[in-house]
Design goal:
With 279 residues, the protein is of the alpha/beta class. The chain is built from six helices and twelve strands. It has two domains: 3-215, FAD/NAD(P)-binding domain, CATH 3.50.50.60; 217-279, no CATH class. The structure holds flavin-adenine dinucleotide (FAD). Flavin-adenine dinucleotide is lined by residues 33-39, 56-58, 61-65, 67-68, 71, 73, 105-106, 139-141, 143, 146, 185-187, 192-195, 197.
Length: 279
């Protein structure tokens, strides 16, 4: 996300031409707090599985990855990549997957008492609005303050709070002990590395998809015939595409990447807050 997307504390919705009132007043299958690497990766999986996914991100704070000078250990970029660019590309990928984005700060979260599978959640925004969601992923490094009052186990280390995972359903799945509430990325005490937090976001997103009983075998795109030529139905979540479609998608990806990499990214690394305050 570029600095120009930030709207001076105003809320802004991107994707799908959705009206801001609809987004705030509607109820979402999934609300993700935080549009950094973990939150975006989680959203790619929940939205591709067909769940209405809203990512609420404090664009003024922004991902801590924006402070990096050059990212050299994220697979897929042999000579490294500018992190402001990587975040922008990943946000577009999440939008293409179907995520809706709302610029805003989540200040509170409470369990609602809806007659749904989990009972649902109500997220409070800084401006006083509230958002309803059936499931919530906290991916908001390094702010866990809005989780206070839920009775979660939070490991406090200095000014930072790490959500302690309750792994009854398998390790690293992001469960918090409250049904429907998950934690992903650095806030879930993952290694402070972008690929690890991204991978954890994906894992938590998929855990949520399975918990929500969405019929999904794997989120894969396979060449035509991969399953059907063996007399198998295409399993749920998998798409078989023919050669023309494969070539078309490859061309589109080449065009999109050429555009992203045509010029150096305009944004400078974000300074550490203590240095920014000195300026
Ligand atoms: C100087 C520096 C250099 C680094 N270099 C590397 C490197 O070279 N390689 C590497 O692998 N890792 C590097 N990292 C670490 C990497 O940036 C993190 O591990 C990773 O970004 C964590 O991902 P995350 O999604 O958990 O958190 P983030 O990427 O920080 O995302 C959290 C998001 O939550 C949002 N948010 C927070 N609170 C709220 C709220 N209340 N409401 C709404 N939104 C909220 C924030 O705006 C942010 O967008 C570096 C970190 C720093 C500081």
């Amino acid at each position: 996300m570029s600095e120009s997307d930030v709207m001076d504390g105003e809320q802004e919705v991107t994707n799908g031409g959705r009206d801001i009132d609809d987004v705030i007043e509607g109820s979402h299958d999934v609300a993700i707090v935080g549009g950094g690497v973990a939150g975006l990766s989680a959203g790619i999986f929940t939205a591709r599985a067909g769940l209405d996914t809203l990512v609420v991100d404090d664009a003024e704070r922004g991902s801590i990855l924006r402070r990096n000078a050059h990212l050299e250990n994220f697979p897929g970029f042999p000579a490294g990549v500018d992190t402001r660019l990587l975040l922008e590309m990943t946000k577009e990928q999440a939008e293409r997957a179907g995520c809706t984005f709302l610029h805003g700060v989540v200040t509170g979260l409470r369990e609602a008492e809806a007659e749904t599978e989990t009972g649902g959640f109500e997220l409070a925004l800084e401006g006083g609005e509230t958002i309803d969601a059936e499931r919530v992923i906290a991916a908001s490094w390094a702010d866990s303050s809005y989780l206070d009052g839920l009775g979660l186990e939070i490991d406090r280390r200095g000014s930072k709070g790490f959500v302690v995972e309750k792994d009854d359903d398998g390790p690293q799945a992001g469960h918090t002990g409250i049904e429907g509430l998950y934690a992903a990325g650095r806030i879930a005490d993952q290694y402070h590395q972008a690929i690890v937090t991204a991978g954890h976001g994906a894992r938590v997103g998929l855990t949520l998809v399975h918990d929500a009983d969405v019929s999904l075998y794997h989120d894969w795109v396979a060449p035509a015939g991969y399953f059907t030529d063996r007399g198998r139905e295409v399993p749920p979540g998998i798409e078989e595409i023919d050669e023309a479609e494969r070539r078309q998608r490859e061309r589109e990806s080449m065009e999109v990447m050429r555009e992203y990499f045509a010029e150096p990214h305009p944004d400078e690394p974000t300074p550490h807050p203590s240095l920014a305050d000195d300026q």
